[in-house]
Design goal:
- Helix content is about 35%, strand content about 15%.
- It is an alpha+beta fold.
- It has a domain at about 25-105.
- Strands 3-2-1-4 form a four-stranded mixed β-sheet.
- It is globular.
- It starts with 8 loop residues before the first helix and ends in a 17-residue tail after the last helix.
- Residues about 115-123 have low confidence and may be disordered.
Length: about 120
């Protein structure tokens, strides 16, 4: 089955792809879109590509709830943000919003341990 580049992930990526991480997929972008549509006051924070991780975006809602997904390129999430009417910021310039840290603190006991499916991590 051929991959359909619906969001322009491959077109905007350029010639390099990180070696240790998987590539962004349409499902990653759709998860961010769904998060933004289901919550109020969502903003995107674009995180740069690193040696080990593809470019990612963190979607943060008005209450600080957040999710992070691979996006392949800042241009991809920029287009998604424009289409949704959602602001997108470079996290290296503006940093993360304080409400994100506050949400993490309020929900510390609800975090899931990735090594144990369905088990909450206790502080």
């Amino acid at each position: 089955m051929r991959f359909r580049d619906r969001f322009g992930i491959r077109r905007h990526r350029g010639t390099t792809v990180t070696k240790l991480d998987r590539e962004a997929t349409a499902a990653d972008i759709e998860a961010l879109i769904s998060f933004a549509r289901d919550r109020r006051g969502v903003e995107f924070y674009i995180e740069p590509e690193t040696f080990a991780t593809d470019t990612t975006a963190v979607a943060v809602a008005h209450d600080g709830e957040w999710t992070r997904r691979r996006v392949g390129s800042p241009k991809v999430i920029g287009k998604v943000a424009r289409d949704l009417g959602v602001p997108a910021y470079d996290v290296q310039i503006v940093g993360y919003p304080p409400r994100m840290r506050a949400w993490n603190e309020r929900n510390r006991d609800r975090r899931i341990d990735p090594g144990t499916p369905g088990q909450a991590v206790r502080p």
